[in-house]
Design a protein that fits this description.
This protein is mainly β. The chain has two helices and eleven strands; from the N terminus they run αββββββαβββββ. The chain has a five-stranded mixed beta sheet with strand order 2-9-8-4-5, with no helix packed on it. It has a four-stranded mixed beta sheet with strand order 1-3-6-7, with no helix packed on it. A two-stranded antiparallel ribbon has the order 10-11. The longest helix is centred in the N-terminal third of the chain and has 18 residues, at about 1-20. It is rod-shaped.
Length: about 190
């Protein structure tokens, strides 16, 4: 009887292992890392306006549970911002731009991400996708360096240097109204 019982238990274990070797975790196990892409901007693209709209796509074989945005300025993390349970495998962030904002003051104050205003400068935006099992790969994040430029450009011509004299005619030689060639010196 003991032998029959042991044989029965052994048979059940072998059969159940063939169906699902991970007892109690469901019929499938998530072993695939999420894939994320930023589609709204190219690397080193210039952007301007009052709002930066960064967006992209994400996917996973089971489900992406969160998307995290990290914004860096001069190799310092300004802030991170998380979207939990993104819908339809799409994500977007809207970030205020303000050419008069003071990043140093905001960093020292520890302002929340929703209150940050980014002045002109070069920023690195890195977005990460996470699934429930913590799978990651090089495809699970994407980054862009963007140049925010809201200040109007100022141009000054410094070369070639301005000539010191300018020739012009006064009157009309053909009508006899004077043929005087005059020159002006510019200092």
């Amino acid at each position: 009887m003991k032998r029959l019982f042991c044989l029965l238990i052994s048979s059940l274990i072998i059969i159940s292992c063939q169906l699902n070797p991970f007892l109690g975790v469901g019929s499938t196990v998530d072993t695939v890392a999420p894939v994320l892409n930023i589609v709204s901007h190219e690397n080193f693209q210039y952007v301007s306006g009052t709002v930066l709209k960064l967006h992209g796509t994400c996917s996973d074989n089971v489900r992406v549970i969160s998307i995290l945005l990290k914004v860096e300025y001069k190799d310092k993390t300004l802030f991170t911002w998380e979207i939990k349970n993104p819908t339809l495998n799409k994500w977007h962030y809207s970030i205020q731009l303000n050419p008069n904002a003071d990043i140093t003051e905001q960093l020292n104050a520890g302002t929340a991400a929703e209150k940050f205003e980014l002045p002109d400068g070069e920023y690195k935006f890195t977005v990460f996708a996470y699934d429930a099992n913590g799978n990651t790969s090089n495809d699970s994040y994407d980054s862009r360096t963007l140049v925010i430029d809201n200040e109007p450009s100022v141009s000054e011509i410094t070369y070639p240097p301005l000539k010191t004299s300018l020739d012009f005619y006064v009157g009309d030689e053909n009508r006899g109204g004077g043929s005087g060639r005059r020159s002006i010196r510019l200092q």
